[in-house]
Design goal:
It contains four helices and nine strands. It has a single domain (2-181), classed as Cyclic Phosphodiesterase, Chain: A (Alpha-Beta Complex), CATH 3.90.1140. The mean pLDDT is 93. It is globular. The chain has a five-stranded antiparallel β-sheet, sandwiched between helices. Strands 3-1-8-9 form a four-stranded antiparallel β-sheet, with helices on one face. The chain is 28% helix and 39% strand. It has 184 residues and is an alpha+beta fold.
């Protein structure tokens, strides 16, 4: 199965509102810029790719050792990757403290799974992807970055999931295979 380790977003309504406002204001064609489905809002801590059933058991074992406390994140600002004036990904930012805690959690997951041979392709960057650019040319979101620079929502992080990703013509379908709860 195609798998990744992630933290879900529960503050869906305010983020979806901003996503809808941006989509309407930018006038992007759905064939050029695809919004991430609201039920798929998440932070990918590490992408694992195709894994076997025996890999699943080993990953679950490593993830079960994760130790983290419940923490809060505040969503604010809109950014573009690799740059706001040539964005291929449009995402919502996270406050400094939430960013540090998400990064520490990602680092812990990456370290645990490195023992099984999984590697992080690129450094973890705490952001919530809300659009993916499918067109040949990136989009310029510099004006949107200024308009949506303030607070958007707050969220509580209390679980990490091993997720299965099933790719379909209508978009990916994610399901939780294994969940690790924060310490109580």
């Amino acid at each position: 199965m195609r798998a990744f380790v992630a933290v879900d977003v529960s503050a869906i309504a305010p983020i979806a509102k901003v996503q809808n406002e941006i989509s309407a204001a930018a006038g992007w064609s759905p064939r050029d810029v695809k919004p991430v489905e609201q039920q798929n809002f998440h932070f990918t801590l590490i992408f694992l790719g195709e894994i076997t059933d025996s890999d699943v058991q080993a990953v679950e074992s490593k993830l079960s050792a994760l130790q983290f406390d419940v923490f809060d994140v505040a969503y604010s600002g809109i950014g573009g990757f690799p740059t706001p004036d040539a964005a291929r990904i449009v995402g919502v930012g996270v406050d400094k403290e939430g960013s540090e805690k998400l990064s520490a959690l990602a680092s812990q997951a990456v370290s645990a799974l490195a023992e099984l041979g999984f590697k992080q392709d690129k450094p973890f960057s705490p952001h919530l992807t809300i659009f993916r650019v499918k067109a040949k040319h990136p989009v310029n979101i510099a004006g949107l970055s200024a308009k949506y620079g303030g607070p958007i929502a707050a969220d509580r992080i209390d679980k990490v999931h091993l997720k299965k990703s099933q790719l379909t013509p209508a978009g990916p379908i994610y399901s939780n295979v294994y969940t690790v709860d924060a310490r109580k």
